[in-house]
Amino acid sequence: MYQLIIRNGRVLDPAGGFDGTADVAVADGKIAGIGSFPDAEARQTVDASGCVVTPGLIDHHAHLYPLAKIGLPAEAVCFRSGVTTAVDAGSTGCDTFARYVPFLRQSKLRIRAYLNVCSTGLDSLPKQMEDVDPAHYDEAALRASFDAYGEWLLGLKLRTSREVVGELGYRPLREMSNLAEKLDTNVMVHCTNPPGTIPELLCYLRRGDVMTHMYMNKGKTLLDEKGFVCREAYEARNRGVLFEASDAREHFSFEVSEPAIRAGFYPDIIATDLTMFSMNYRPTAFSLTNQIAKYTQLGIPFETVLACCTKRPAEQMGLLGEIGTLQQGACADIAVFRREPSDIAFGDRPYGNPDGQQRPCEWRLRTMLTVRAGEMVYRDEFF
Fold first, then answer.
1. Range of the domain at 70
2. Is 273 among the domain residues?
3. Residue 291, class by beta-carbon neighbours within 10 Å (0-12 exposed, 13-18 middle, 19+ buried)?
């Protein structure tokens, strides 16, 4: 007997190359198969007719409570959005990460993290910016953290905004990149309002490193003086640098995203950067399902957008095959969505911001069911 069968949905698995109407069977917390199981018995059966069935989504950039004081209530927000894996993007540093390991171990949500290069992470926010002076980087403590907690850690994180780095310019980024080389790990760099140009920033990034907030419009941007995606961005992508769209309240703009998308410069990863300040603010990021609908309606094929929230972050995390797919033997992390008409706008700033722009939203994704390791952790009350 199967643990769960989800029947009759459009099963879409970019990692497995599957797109068609089928059933998904679950046994012992794993995907038992995709196909037709008309006579099979299961403890739970769900009819997903009219819905799309996908791997559980991966939000590769968020800030989770209690790792961050400003963090979102992880399970409540993620499971209702079809997210079964979330990555905390630098809320903690080498002085603070260890205290949260018990939380990570007991959470039903799968959590991984980037370690902030600032030893105390974002503990000082929102009152004070984090200390990113390279003179205060603690290489020994960072190495000890990766040695002790490497199963949880994906790399180092730095916010390289002018508001954070001040007169230090790109020196914190250069020194973090050198540290990451020594530690044999990757980096994620927040690029909003950078202290120099984006081409300068990209020269410090290596294969597997992530430039996040790729479509922001504060300070120097991804576009050159003629309004085209800069040559250096293509060169960086060719050498394996990853570009992430994680929009939060204002790390996104139509003036950058629309010409970049028209040119085919799509994100490698789509995430949210949600915090307590952004998780319920319309018409901005709001949720990962909102991000999926927005980027599809901006012109990226739905299948490509879905891969940016499943297959590609799983690859970056070194977990593809376990998560980010519905292939047989993978962890049974599954999301079921229904596409519904919507008249809620997409925006690049919260309502009331005089610099905000909006675009019509013709449809949205409504989460009907979220399954984590075979367990139904969220279900719409009318599904």
1. 57-316
2. yes
3. buried
Beta carbons of 154 and 164 less than 8 angstroms apart: no
Token pair, residue 51, equals: 């819905």
Split at pLDDT 50, 70, 90, the class of 125 is confident
Paired tokens of 155: 């790399």
274, 62 in Cβ contact below 8 A? yes
Average pLDDT (68-86) is 96
pTM tops 0.90: yes
Q: Is the peptide bond before 126 cis (omega within 30 degrees of 0)?
A: yes
372 domain residue, yes or no: no
Give domain status of residue 2, yes or no.
no
Q: Is residue 22 part of a domain?
A: no
Q: What is the CATH number of the domain that holds 277?
A: 3.20.20.140
Distance CA 294, CA 332 (A): 27
The encoded tokens of residue 282 equal 């319309």
Q: Residue 143: CA atoms inside 13 Å, Cβ hemisphere, count?
A: 8
Q: How many CB atoms lie within 10 A of CB 19?
A: 14
Number of domains in the chain: 1
Which residue, 91, 368, 304, 279, is CA-closest to 378?
368
**Is 134 within 8 Å of 106 (Cβ atoms)?**
no
Token code pair at residue 4: 């769960």
Q: CB atoms < 10 A from the CB of 376, how many?
A: 14
